[in-house]
Amino acid sequence: MARNVLAVDDSKVMRDMVRLALNGAGFTVREAGDGVEALQRINGDPVDLIITDVNMPNMDGLTFVRHVRSKPGFQRTPILILTTEATDSKKAEGKAAGATGWLVKPFTPDKLLDVVRRVCP
């Protein structure tokens, strides 16, 4: 059975890259352009993994992660941050918000799949 992934990024190109990498490996990918839209997408729909950017309009990725972690049933859902942000302080902020892992853009499909398979076997 295919795993359901939600890709959250304000860049359509980046969402397409994530979708293409994961669809080829048997994952089903849904998309959202920011944290507000992503919260709407997870209401009532099962999600096995969330991949989110940090810098987005309307609701940034770290705020989105905090909202997801406060929702019943999402405390253990793996959440990967995929962003250009690479400072230790920003990574610590992501971990404190509840992120499972951190990937820095640009990424290769193989690297993304490796991390995704580790957190969502």
UniProtKB/TrEMBL annotation:
SMART domains found in the cross-reference section: REC (SM00448)
Gene Ontology biological process terms from the UniProt entry: phosphorelay signal transduction system
InterPro entries, A to Z: Bact_response_regulator (IPR050595), CheY-like_superfamily (IPR011006), Sig_transdc_resp-reg_receiver (IPR001789)
Coiled coil location: none
Record-annotated Response regulatory domain positions: 4-120
Keywords assigned by UniProt, alphabetized: Phosphoprotein
Highest taxon above the source species: Bacteria
Gene3D superfamilies recorded: 3.40.50.2300
Residues recorded with modification 4-aspartylphosphate: 53
PANTHER family hit by this protein: CHEMOTAXIS TWO-COMPONENT RESPONSE REGULATOR, STRESS RESPONSE REGULATOR PROTEIN 1
Protein name per its UniProtKB record: Response regulator
Organism: Azospirillum doebereinerae
